[in-house]
Design a protein that fits this description.
The protein is an all-alpha fold. It has ten helices and no strands. Helices cover about 80% and strands about 0% of the residues. It has one domain (about 25-165). The protein starts with a helix and ends with a helix.
């Protein structure tokens, strides 16, 4: 019986070892796809600032014109940074706050239906961007990113420490 348990543990460890190789390619795919989508959204807002300003005015936001420029820029540059994996955790934090505020200000009904009608919360526009932002904030950009390239180039001691920790 003990041999079977040991064999299962070995298979489990091998399986986890193989699956861990998918972490960075997965994070790369997520960052590229959703970063591009977010950058396009920001670009569209930058080119239609009057519409965004009108919308922000209808929501009763203070300084709607300035907020339109700010939010459009956060989405455009945040999307680019996200796609490249540049300053990924800071970018993830800023985008997470941005998407939470999109729920709070722009889609409060969906936010309040988080428990009562989760489908409404999930169907809201900021949902996918919020999830991706939280993923990158928590897990970082992965090994296939500008952050890793910079850390490798400059010989970051933290990167060496992370590499020595088994996955």
């Amino acid at each position: 019986m003990n041999i079977i348990v040991t064999k299962i543990e070995q298979w489990h460890e091998r399986f986890l070892g193989l699956v861990s190789y998918l972490r960075s390619p997965f994070l790369l795919f997520v960052r590229l796809y959703w970063g591009w989508q977010l950058a396009q959204s920001g670009w569209g807002k930058l080119h239609h600032l009057s519409n965004v300003t009108e919308y922000f005015t209808s929501l009763g936001m203070p300084m709607p014109a300035q907020m339109a420029i700010f939010i459009a820029s956060v989405e455009f540059f945040g999307g680019i940074f996200l796609a490249f994996g540049l300053l990924s955790r800071i970018t993830g934090l800023v985008l997470t706050i941005n998407m939470i505020m999109a729920y709070v200000i722009g889609d409060r009904e969906a936010l309040l239906s988080f428990f009562s009608d989760p489908d409404k919360f999930i169907a809201a526009a900021p949902f996918a961007f919020l999830i991706v932002s939280v993923i990158v904030f928590i897990f970082g950009a992965g090994k296939l990113s500008v952050d890793t390239a910079i850390a490798t180039f400059f010989g970051s001691p933290r990167l060496k420490q992370v590499r020595s920790i088994p996955a």
